[in-house]
Design goal:
Layout: E1 10-14, H1 19-30, E2 34-38, H2 42-55, E3 60-62, H3 70-84, E4 89-92, H4 108-136, E5 139-144, H5 157-177, E6 182-189, H6 204-211, H7 222-233, E7 244-247
Parallel strand pairs: 1-2, 1-4, 2-3, 4-5, 5-6, 6-7
């Protein structure tokens, strides 16, 4: 267990009231971390924190925050420090995709929202936590990107552009922060059965169609992504930085 031990670590995970973020929080708490559950609405955050605390007393707190608000994100970081004293792990998981269609039809507001929420908010959060990590010479930053950032798509082009930018954000920050023993990496999930992607799998026919081109012949579950996050956050991932771990059932091969 030593390689994956997160005892004494504090993790802030955005978008963690459901789906991939929730699974990451559950698994990190299982491996000993204190976890901060955060998404826009307080109720779902508190429910997940209570669920984790029932198994691991005192391991989780809920701090709702909207990733589109820099003030909200600053409060998230400040309240985490007030509660736990430090931040060792940051997982930028929350994202949005308000537009489905060709790039020729996307409005400026929708495009800006995708870029702001999927790239700029990650930049803000990293700016907020990096100074203390630099001071301690220790930290792990994980950005949840997507295999969409590795290839084109006729209907989610803006989303894919934002996810490609996340890969480059991790590479650039690895150059800046890794000399301080802070690792910055991405996880690139394939199609996972979450509410975020529900339109692609919410009927048996849709799920069969979506999984047909995947060598493992199934879609991902949130827990399939959580292990990669534990790896990157722990000693097991201590010599990995600036990289993207693709977890997609083989879809990109």
């Amino acid at each position: 267990m030593e390689l994956f031990d997160l005892a004494g670590k504090v993790a802030v995970i955005t978008g963690s009231s459901r789906g991939i973020g929730k699974a990451m929080a559950q698994r990190m708490a299982e491996h000993g971390a204190k976890v901060v559950i955060s998404s826009r609405k307080a109720g779902p955050c508190e429910a997940v924190a209570a669920e984790i605390n029932a198994k691991h007393p005192g391991a989780a707190i809920a701090i709702p925050a909207n990733i589109s608000s820099k003030e909200d994100l600053k409060r998230l970081i400040d309240e985490t420090r007030a509660a736990f004293g430090r931040i060792d792990i940051l997982v930028c998981n929350a994202a949005s995709n308000p537009y489905y269609g060709p790039m020729s039809g996307i409005g400026d507001d929708a495009f800006r929202k995708i870029l702001d929420n999927n790239i700029i908010s990650n930049h803000w959060l990293i700016q907020m936590v990096a100074p203390e990590m630099i001071e301690r010479r220790d930290g792990a930053i994980i950005i949840v990107s997507s295999i969409g950032g590795l290839r084109g798509n006729a209907v989610i082009g803006a989303y894919n552009i934002s996810k490609a930018a996340d890969f480059q954000l991790a590479r650039n920050l690895a150059h800046e922060l890794s000399p301080h023993n802070i690792r910055v990496n991405c996880i690139a999930p394939g199609l996972v059965k979450t509410d975020f992607a529900k339109a692609l799998w919410d009927t048996p026919e849709a799920e069969k169609r979506s999984s047909a081109a995947t060598p493992l012949r199934r879609l991902g579950e949130p827990d399939d992504i959580a292990g990669a996050a534990v790896f990157l956050a722990s000693k097991a991932g201590s010599w990995m930085t600036g990289q993207a771990i693709v977890v997609d059932g083989g879809a990109t091969v």
